[in-house]
Design a protein that fits this description.
This protein has five helices and no strands. Helix 1 packs antiparallel against helix 2 and helix 1 crosses helix 5. The protein starts with a helix and ends with a helix.
């Protein structure tokens, strides 16, 4: 289980939910469901600590509907991570290489 990957995904979902759904200190029900799903999938990843970023992963472990949802979240939140969570963003960028 890659703790850093779980933190990154959670923060991306938070950024998205705050901007798109107007939440303050929590997630809306839909984003909470997506976060729970993503965290569960990461916990069960066969790559463990050696898991590549989702973009480079050879196995797509999300159901198609959830995969599209997380893709939308990542597309929106990814570029904003550097402003909200710079250290997390830099760690993620380094791991992508």
């Amino acid at each position: 289980m890659n703790k850093q990957e779980k933190i990154t995904v959670g923060k991306m979902i938070y950024i998205y939910c705050h901007a798109k759904h107007g939440t303050q200190n929590s997630l809306c029900a839909d984003c909470e469901e997506l976060n729970h799903y993503a965290q569960t999938r990461l916990s069960r990843c066969k790559y463990g600590d050696d898991k590549p970023t989702c973009e480079k992963c050879p196995i797509h472990c999300y159901k198609p509907e959830m995969r599209e949802k997380i893709r939308i979240v990542m597309r929106y939140a990814g570029p904003r991570m550097i402003y909200k969570y710079p250290l997390t963003a830099i760690k993620h960028l380094i791991k992508q290489k």
